[in-house]
Amino acid sequence: MPQVVFSLDSTKKFTEQAIVGHNRWHGDIPAQVQVKPGDSFRVHCREWFDGAIHNDDSAEDVLNAPLPAVHVLSGPIAVEGAQPGDLLIVDILDVGPIPQEDSGPLAGQGWGYTGVFATKNGGGFLTEWFPDAYKVVWDFMGGIATSRHVPGVSYTGIVHPGLMGTAPSGALLAKWNAREQALIDTDPDRVPPLALPPLPDSAVLGSLTGADFDRVAAEAARTAPPRENGGNQDIKNFTKGTRVFYPVFVDGAKLSMGDLHFSQGDGEITFCGAIEMGGFMDLHVDLIKGGMETYGVSENAIFMPGNVDPLYSQWLAFSGTSVTLDGVQHYLDSHLSYQRACLHAIDYLQKFGYSAIQAYMILGSAPIEGRLSGVVDIPNSCSTVYLPTAIFDIDVRPSASGPAQVEQGMSVPTASF
Amino acid sequence: MPQVVFSLDSTKKFTEQAIVGHNRWHGDIPAQVQVKPGDSFRVHCREWFDGAIHNDDSAEDVLNAPLPAVHVLSGPIAVEGAQPGDLLIVDILDVGPIPQEDSGPLAGQGWGYTGVFATKNGGGFLTEWFPDAYKVVWDFMGGIATSRHVPGVSYTGIVHPGLMGTAPSGALLAKWNAREQALIDTDPDRVPPLALPPLPDSAVLGSLTGADFDRVAAEAARTAPPRENGGNQDIKNFTKGTRVFYPVFVDGAKLSMGDLHFSQGDGEITFCGAIEMGGFMDLHVDLIKGGMETYGVSENAIFMPGNVDPLYSQWLAFSGTSVTLDGVQHYLDSHLSYQRACLHAIDYLQKFGYSAIQAYMILGSAPIEGRLSGVVDIPNSCSTVYLPTAIFDIDVRPSASGPAQVEQGMSVPTASF
Amino acid sequence: MPQVVFSLDSTKKFTEQAIVGHNRWHGDIPAQVQVKPGDSFRVHCREWFDGAIHNDDSAEDVLNAPLPAVHVLSGPIAVEGAQPGDLLIVDILDVGPIPQEDSGPLAGQGWGYTGVFATKNGGGFLTEWFPDAYKVVWDFMGGIATSRHVPGVSYTGIVHPGLMGTAPSGALLAKWNAREQALIDTDPDRVPPLALPPLPDSAVLGSLTGADFDRVAAEAARTAPPRENGGNQDIKNFTKGTRVFYPVFVDGAKLSMGDLHFSQGDGEITFCGAIEMGGFMDLHVDLIKGGMETYGVSENAIFMPGNVDPLYSQWLAFSGTSVTLDGVQHYLDSHLSYQRACLHAIDYLQKFGYSAIQAYMILGSAPIEGRLSGVVDIPNSCSTVYLPTAIFDIDVRPSASGPAQVEQGMSVPTASF
Amino acid sequence: MPQVVFSLDSTKKFTEQAIVGHNRWHGDIPAQVQVKPGDSFRVHCREWFDGAIHNDDSAEDVLNAPLPAVHVLSGPIAVEGAQPGDLLIVDILDVGPIPQEDSGPLAGQGWGYTGVFATKNGGGFLTEWFPDAYKVVWDFMGGIATSRHVPGVSYTGIVHPGLMGTAPSGALLAKWNAREQALIDTDPDRVPPLALPPLPDSAVLGSLTGADFDRVAAEAARTAPPRENGGNQDIKNFTKGTRVFYPVFVDGAKLSMGDLHFSQGDGEITFCGAIEMGGFMDLHVDLIKGGMETYGVSENAIFMPGNVDPLYSQWLAFSGTSVTLDGVQHYLDSHLSYQRACLHAIDYLQKFGYSAIQAYMILGSAPIEGRLSGVVDIPNSCSTVYLPTAIFDIDVRPSASGPAQVEQGMSVPTASF
Questions:
Q1: By its UniProt entry, which Gene3D superfamilies does this protein fall under (chains A, B, C, D) (predicted)?
Q2: CA gap C229, C244 in Å, rounded
Q3: A267 Cβ contact list (under 8 Å, min separation 6)
Q4: ∠ CA A308-A310-A314 to the nearest 5 degrees?
Q5: In chain A, which residues have their Cβ closer than 8 Å to the Cβ of D282?
Q6: Given CB atoms, is A352 within the 8 Å cutoff of chain C?
Q7: pLDDT of A339-385, one tens digit each?
Q8: All chains having 3 or more CB pairs closer than 8 angstroms to chain D
Q9: Subunits touching A (CB < 8 Å, at least 3 pairs)?
Q10: Alpha carbon of C100: minimum distance to chain B alpha carbons (Å)
Q11: Strand partners, B317
Q12: Region(s) of chain A under CATH 3.10.28
């Protein structure tokens, strides 16, 4: 086990820890930890809602989730010698739930959750059809997740951080704020909103205090979206063994991470989210000096996934095109076509005895693959979603004998305003 | 080898064959061939431009490609007993280039091509950056493609039909035409157009003649987009061993297929297209009577991919978000974020000595994977594109020693209006 | 399709073909075909018993199989410039059943067979428990084999040549004959024999005639065993896409091949054999001049398997140790421990309704893996045999609900002296 | 983390622990721990030599290894309700090095070792060519092993227990002792010995004392070989996610385990051994009552490997036949043919700058595959050994440009009597 450089106590809130992390992006948040190229180290990560979501059978906590406070991140970690223009190599040596704690009230202590926000809280990918708040709880055993709220499925974890990235420079941050505000301004009252502007309320900025805190809190970017620094990419393939290359925008790179997922489907379509949990990451860092120019990497993370993900050899796939459920034709809209593919999968799974929300939860949390299969065939894009058949206890393949039925138990907790 | 039920002579044009296929969708195009559930049979398929694209070093043919005449399809094939509401099971027993012909002037005779249309001809996924017409030619040997126009890469073929589907009912066809015309009407003069309306010019409708021909030609849908009947889905995973389930909308199902690809990346981003070729398909069909209702499949093909695709274990991946190159923030636009991911990959490959168009051609034709990684993190979606490192002769991984350089030979043929 | 350099007519016997191959190893058998490094070419291959085994429900043909006449090989093929000390690179571009012929009396025409010899004919790996002659017939469709004699299984073909190799030099041949005769001499009357000495009876030696024929027939080695030149290695992983490196012992290398298999388990434990068939191979050859010394390859073929074999992700495995069924302890005998592992698998499969011989046939013909798991733990070696569960229609995993039962149809044809 | 039921303190010897395990097999060794079907629990395991092998650059410790004291096992663990005739299901939920301890003097604390015994101590699979004692030390980081004694290789761990099994009944134990003594009696003075008889010296028998200890010590079987109860099978595929089914021979089943390996090649050809270490196992147990009869499993463990092993897609393979290096022909001896395949691989790797012993160490510790490719082609069996090319930093494929050379550092520690 590498040395723990960012330690968390599961019994304390994020802001009461020995080292306080942050929940906004800003280059002026001081580094809390210093490492060197070639170092390996462990970082503890808090589940993204800092313990507000409980291991119970109610979705009230998801309905009332403290959105301004996310994501609670570990960091910033300064890497000695890192300068703007470098590529920061981050090897994910290991990542998992909270070590040595397999029971307790905090997600990551042997359990995790998948939620869907109510529409007015941000909804999810399919919020038009699932307008309320929903939650399912997953139990972890032996690297496998099962749920009392979703019968007949078990997934081998593809544990990964939903969020990791370097700090933006001042110029980059200004660009973010300007372009996102411009989008918000096109429809400022939209529910859910088009984007999230800086929000001093609930901001946590590490060791900053006083005037510095106020200035940074007013400028710092929210952590919801992925951006040029990586950030909340929610790439389910950032599993153990993955090597990521991040652009460096500030001295020391100032790496941060969090939002750990036990498992997730491509897209994290449930939004709140994958199978959410706290836990740890073992990381190794190195630098390619001047690597941004050398490799033409200016504004995105590139990566090489690890080689120990669960191997599946049989998939059932659904396709969708960019026509709305109401029959309106859109032009090459891959977002829409992926929605339609997911809805087709949900329709299908209901024939096996699943409720619609259970099927949605499966798509959000299982290691499904979402592909941009066709993006040029005007006017329809074709997106596809692949389900590994091995995650189901029953045979979910179509056949002349008709669909088998899962045995239902507890239904999915739901809450609405 | 199963019996050939739809035979083509490589030396004759599509309209001069013993059985003439079709290039429009309409339920009234008579079935040319009758098969029974449980039958296995072979179908020959013509390359989608009917031989207009040549094995040479010029892109003039792509610039002047006969767009109204695509896609030249084999079929319709009636399946005995198929009725609206059934699911048609289609097993792809085998699919490959033109059998026993490994040289000749027709794509599929030992070679294939990847093209990019000029913008005014429809462009491609990245037409803003690649406005001209381009072409590269690939040679097939031992199931592997290499190109004199793209150095240092070789791909094991993932041969598949870009297009396969059942015939639409009259009501379904009317729905298609109405919704697509409505889209066109929003910007009727756009170049490239938003959608393609019915076009009697160059229509080929099997055995139809006279007034029937005229009526059907005026109504029949173009084959470019994927729709409820499957159609031009361009799903690269329809390889040997795949089982597809199609909704049946008319008596006999009336299955048609074509647009064979030797290889393709997710999205077929080059548009003209994958590695295009003529060839054959060996198919087995069966029915699930009433399967559409039984399995909740009303308007999309579902499928189970085969298990003999080339296995890769190391990938280099690039991410993109829904911000334009000009810095404009879009809202959860996965199409845009996939463009940005692809552009990032192109930037990167240029550092290894590839030209931009060569890199684009690789992304369009190699077995790359395009994923909808994050679709909820407002305002940015996150799309990713994965390149198998094994397709490159040189090591394309980032390292402290900097990028190796491919040895350039012939450049990519280009043509413009 | 590459040019056919060694053509066979399915309607004619091996000795009546336009080019007559050979069924013994000797450096003086003249090359029938000349190719150059860099060439690609097609070779037809006859099934190893030259059509003596029929597509019927009797095992009399296996009982009376013409053993002295095997293996009927295609070749020798001289490679221009090849000299002793070189490594001959052979790329298996493609390999399959008889092209364009999917029905007919010859194995490879849409069907193949797996046999077990009676003990006095050579038996099989488990001849003590299966002393008679047995045969099952497999039908090929879409690259998948099924059998009327073995219910409830279907295998995706892993087509490969059981036998391929270069010609021995005179010195090497003399070494073979001497060491094998020495073994025979230790128990010359054993049934089955310990080894097979040269046998002029039924020898086919290409274009040789007269005194040359007589001399060579008296010296030439039988083709049964693998040796320094490759030969009858029966490595099931010589599938499409494989690159093999053979030592060159004579000028021109004199490559020969045959004994095609549609599928086989590790070990080819049924002996007669895998799923046997005639067919074709598309090959590409090249040379590494002086490669034997450069790479330390003096007396064995080395190879790199292809990447398009069927992917399985779930296996059921059985172990065995080197103790006989009678309870006698042997010392680190991996042959025995593999027998015991296979017998354990056969015991197990019988609980699912298979007959013992059906289970044996499955192990011989399905893509099972046989591993030398432990070879040092005195006195027991540990061998293991892995069955992909996906080849079975029923669930063959152990569970509290007990074994499902396959539905039996036709039993396995059996014959005895 | 499941509850620890068998805890070890890394600073104390095996016999000084709170619960003392055992190093012999006997049904009368009392269970130390009681679990129930359905339970999950953690077990600590001591490295097999109880700390006698050090993280240094000398092989004296391997030369003088305390052989009578192996293997130090954790257990026996009684499973409530288990009776003779049942199948005990053991799920390997997780397995790894010593948790939370990544440095220290005990193998498993961030490091492990691979050794080869001197011939008089038992040697290894290739002891004729490697008669001395050798040792290499591996460092673990991020689930990957590298060694200062073996340049240019790194392996993703395939962590597994070399040894796990149930206790024998009295009758079964008597059978073991009788058959192994009979083998020893055929050559009682052989070096290394043919088998290991019961040995009271150094016996550790859990809580037994006094006359019971003496009686059991005189009867109990050594742990070196695999037997009907599983035992020291050294199956490298018992990785995380594996389900094993053990026959139950005594009330409570009395499961024990140990001899953890960070990585191993098929065969564990180095004998001392794989990459040896102490660590932990998380297990889940269940019963199939009467399962031995139901499933025909009487005298072997059957298993289903997990699905998270590292994925490799390119292999370089070597073949061998059953002819000795001196040219003596053996009859279908797969042990010999695997030796020859391994020696061929060693010859080959030396051309890349490896010493012979380094190559041997790679084969013993890397995730190589050893296959029984042909076992019927008299007189030669054909065994093959597959090396994943991705474990090497340099390109180890044969090519016209000749072998690259690894950069040598520290040589392999060696010691001899």
A1: Acetamidase/Formamidase-like domains (2.60.120.580)
A2: 12
A3: A125, A234, A338, A342, A364, A370, B372, B373, B374, B375, B376
A4: 140
A5: 142
A6: no
A7: 999 999 999 999 999 999 999 999 999 999 999 999 999 999 999 99
A8: A, B, C
A9: B, C, D
A10: 5
A11: A303, B386
A12: 315-406
Residue A9 burial (CB count, 10 A): 10
The class level of CATH for D4-304 reads: mainly beta
* A312 in reach of chain C (CB within 8 A): yes
Query: Which of B1, B100, B241 lies closest to C156 in CB terms?
Result: B241
Q: Match 């997922």 to its residue by tokens.
A: A261
* Partner-chain contact A102 D1, CB within 8 Å: yes
Tokens describing residue D315: 């292999």
Residue written as token pair 């046989």: C370
Residue D417: other Cβ atoms inside 10 A: 11
**Domain A315-406 adopts which CATH fold?**
Endonuclease I-creI (3.10.28)
Q: How far apart are CA C225 and CA C170, in angstroms?
A: 18
Q: What is the pTM of this model?
A: 0.96
d(CA D65, CA D361): 18
Tokens of C35: 């190719």
3-class secondary-structure state, position A263: coil
CB-based contact C310 B308, cutoff 8 Å: yes
Dist. CA C340–CA C327, nearest whole Å: 11
Q: Which of B328, B339, C389 is nearest to D243 (CA)?
A: C389
**Does the distance separating the beta carbons of D101 and A100 come in below 8 Å?**
no
Asked whether the beta carbons of D280 and D99 are under 8 A apart, the reply is: yes
- DSSP codes, D212-273: HHHHHHHHPBPSSSEETTEES---TT--TT-EEEEE--STT--EEEEEEES---TB-TTEEE
Residues of D in contact with A309 (CB under 8 A): 308, 311
Q: Each residue of D269-301: pLDDT tens digit? A: 999 989 999 999 999 999 999 999 999 999 999
Task: Select the residue of D267, D296, D375 nearest C374 (Cβ to Cβ).
Answer: D267
- Residue C71, preceding peptide bond in cis (omega within 30° of 0): yes
Average pLDDT of the residues in C23-44: 97
Please name the residue that has the structure tokens 């160490």: D361
**Quick check: C133 and C118 in contact, CB under 8 A?**
yes
Read off the tokens for C198: 């040269």
Q: Is A240 near chain D, with CB under 8 Å?
A: yes
Q: Inform me whether the pLDDT recorded for C117 exceeds 90.
A: yes
Residue A372 structure tokens: 């941009």
Residue ranges of chain A that CATH labels 2.60.120.580: 4-304
Nearest to A143 among D93, D100, D144 (CB): D93
Are C390 and A314 within 8 A, CB to CB?
yes
User: Which of the following CATH numbers is that of domain D315-408: 3.40.1130, 3.10.28, 3.30.420, 3.40.50?
Assistant: 3.10.28
Per the CB < 8 A criterion, the answer to whether B247 and B100 are in contact is: no
Task: Return the number of other C-beta atoms located less than 10 Å from residue D154's C-beta.
Answer: 18
Residue B102: pLDDT band (50, 70, 90) is confident
Chain C: residue nearest D318 by CA?
Answer: C302
The C-alpha of D397 sits at a distance from chain A's nearest C-alpha, in angstroms, of 21
The boundaries of every CATH 3.10.28 domain in chain D are 315-408
ipTM topping 0.85: yes
Q: Which residue of B has its CA nearest to A244?
A: B317
What pLDDT, in 10s, does the model give residues C168-225?
999 999 999 999 999 999 999 998 899 999 999 999 999 999 999 999 999 999 999 9
- Which of B335, B354, B363, B396 is the best residue to mutate to test the A interface, defined by the most A CB atoms within 10 Å of its own CB? B335
d(CA A331, CA A321): 10
Contact across the interface for A235 and B319, Cβ inside 8 Å:
yes
Burial environment of residue D52 by CB neighbours within 10 A (0 to 12, 13 to 18, 19 or more): middle
Residues 6 or more apart in contact with residue A133 via CB below 8 angstroms = A59, A60, A62, A63, A115, A116, A117, A118, A121, A414, A415, A416
How far apart are the C-alpha atoms of C227 and C223, rounded to whole Å? 9
